[in-house]
Specification:
The protein is of the alpha+beta class. It has a single domain, classed as Immunoglobulins (Immunoglobulin-like). The chain has 2 helices and 10 strands; from the N terminus they run H-E-E-E-E-E-E-E-H-E-E-E.
Length: 160
């Protein structure tokens, strides 16, 4: 094999190793907690909700979110789905609150409310799933939270 091929192979290997070294092996997944779920006034038939998220960055470097895709299930019914891309950067070892606006799936909402009316209960189970895009070469971060919403107004969270 000619010498220039060996130089190209060696140079490519060095670049790949250097690229992998920039990906931090001690990177911890940010934690995302639901801080609020509120109904908003809506001009259409489908209700709109405001979802408050509290994001904690346990890493040294800043968390520069490019976007979030999320869904919220209530008692197993996928009620809300949405995306957001206007997000703040979260400093290393910092935290921030993010507010998302979502519109409900009308058919899922009807099924959910029908089930809710047929069964009297004190709590509603919720499940939030979010995919955080950190941009660059970092993989997507998938987070989820489960808990119960008390119909008396308090939210109880469960560990995954």
């Amino acid at each position: 094999m000619p010498r220039c091929h060996w130089i190209l192979i060696l140079g490519s290997a060095v670049l790949m190793i250097a690229g992998c070294a920039t990906l931090s092996p001690d990177y911890e997944t940010p934690s995302v907690n639901v801080s609020a779920i509120r109904a908003l006034p809506s001009d259409s038939i489908a209700p709109r909700f405001e979802i408050g998220l509290h994001i904690i960055n346990p890493n040294r470097g800043a968390l520069k979110l490019q976007g979030i895709a999320y869904s919220l299930k209530l008692d197993g019914h996928k009620i809300l789905t949405g995306v957001a891309n206007d997000l703040p950067a979260i400093d290393g070892y910092g935290e921030a609150d993010v507010t998302l606006i979502a519109t409900t799936s009308l058919l899922s909402s009807i099924r959910f409310f029908s089930d809710l009316m047929n069964a009297q209960r004190d709590t509603i189970a919720f499940e939030l799933n979010a995919k955080l895009d950190l941009g660059g070469l970092r993989p997507m971060v998938h987070v989820g939270e489960k808990g119960e919403i008390s119909l008396s107004g308090q939210t109880r969270q469960r560990l995954p």
